[in-house]
Automatic annotation (TrEMBL):
Pathway(s) served: Amino-acid biosynthesis; L-serine biosynthesis; L-serine from 3-phospho-D-glycerate: step 1/3
GO molecular function, one term: (S)-2-hydroxyglutarate dehydrogenase activity
Protein name as it appears in the record: D-3-phosphoglycerate dehydrogenase
Catalytic activity, as annotated: (2R)-3-phosphoglycerate + NAD(+) = 3-phosphooxypyruvate + NADH + H(+); (R)-2-hydroxyglutarate + NAD(+) = 2-oxoglutarate + NADH + H(+)
Native source organism of the sequence: Pseudidiomarina piscicola
Phylogenetic placement of the source organism: Bacteria, Pseudomonadati, Pseudomonadota, Gammaproteobacteria, Alteromonadales
Keyword terms, alphabetized: Amino-acid biosynthesis, NAD, Oxidoreductase, Serine biosynthesis
Amino acid sequence: MSQVSLAKDRIKFLLLEGVHESAVEILKQRGYHSIEYITTALDEAELCDKVRDAHFIGIRSRTQLTEKVFAAAEKLIGVGCFCIGTNQVDLVAARNHGVVVFNAPFSNTRSVAELVLAEIIMLLRRIPEKNAAAHRGEWYKTATGSFEARGKVLGIVGYGHIGSQLSILAEQLGMQVRFYDVESKLPLGNASSVASLDALLQQSDVVTLHVPETAQTQWMIDAPQLTKMKPGALLVNASRGTVVVIDALAEALRSGHLAGAAIDVFPVEPSSNKEVFESPLRELDNCILTPHVGGSTQEAQENIGVEVAGKLAHYSDNGSTLSAVNFPEVSLPTHHGARRLLHIHQNRPGMLTRINQLLAEQNINVSGQYLQTDADVGYVVIDIDTPADSDIADTLLDAMRAIEGTIRARVLY
Ligand SMILES: NC(=O)C1=CN([C@@H]2O[C@H](COP(=O)(O)OP(=O)(O)OC[C@H]3O[C@@H](n4cnc5c(N)ncnc54)[C@H](O)[C@@H]3O)[C@@H](O)[C@H]2O)C=CC1
Ligand SMILES: O=C(O)C(=O)COP(=O)(O)O
């Protein structure tokens, strides 16, 4: 057997932020036992040190994977985001270093939708203030400012997996659902789309945000947008902390223009449970504050562990990049009796020709070849008919690595 294909027990996984143990179980079931498990996030300097000998890293929303981290991670071939958001990863840097990034696009969406629905009911009934008062020994029994959810207009910004599930749940309560999305989306049930964010803000009794962190969504809700909301309206943000300008929100809550808010995500979040949480919203009783737990349920975390660990193991075992968020997607059959080589390269003319020339020169029969490219990167998987004890794959690998524009090449089996 060739020496270049790494044995599974030498493939190292670094799992951070206490990802669910289902991830560890799946990796072990798939034959990966070299797993370092850390319950917290690491800062950039600690990460640069830790990632040096890791082949895979698993993170959640706190760990920032920067260009500097990827440059230090010489052996890294894959990242698993055990969450939905991938804004914490420099996806372009990852791709340029030949590192494939996966996430779990659905597994915690129901959990977020349920939490938001519960918060809407709590806010409509002014429970946060009444709860805070009761904790101080005050008895604040009044119907003033308390409303049923039935008949109220719920404005959803971002009608994706979470927004659309919330739409269905809110309609069960009799809410009238309207949404604004930059993409054309099928309205579910009796929901209807609204042409602009401003129009949605003006019409809604409750506004809830379910957009990803992008340049367009950054500080999307600032003082001018809050002013457009109905007097006495409510705001919920369980998307990303950069979507809402917190000082502007605090002012809108203090002035009484908004009656309440529920905020799960913040521009700066503590990096561990031991750090103090600072926010101007802390002093406001009419604001539900939660520590980024929208997706933190046992069900969601267990499913995410299984899903993302499965994707990492599949990529490691077979080279498949199906559902990668930063990489050309190649879905591959397992090819028994063949050797499989992977070549990740800058997408420039003639790369495949050069690889195929090498194969022809060595008189190697190709039994399968799979290529996908995006604007910058090409990924080709080559199955060759050669006995397992031949060292031709090693020779080929050296030659492929010498091709100018190669980012990474390896023999899988
Ligand atoms: N609080 C928590 O624990 C969690 C937070 N999240 C956050 O929620 C976000 C949304 O999750 P999903 O619904 O699963 O994502 P998704 O990708 O299914 O939906 C996002 C929707 O937002 C729309 N959109 C993008 N830019 C927009 C803009 N500028 N204006 C209006 N609409 C825009 C998209 O077209 C898409 O329909 C995630 O990106 C993540 O940041 C996700 C899970 C847990
Ligand atoms: O799935 C997401 O995007 C989330 O925000 C959840 O993040 P977490 O895994 O709880 O740190």
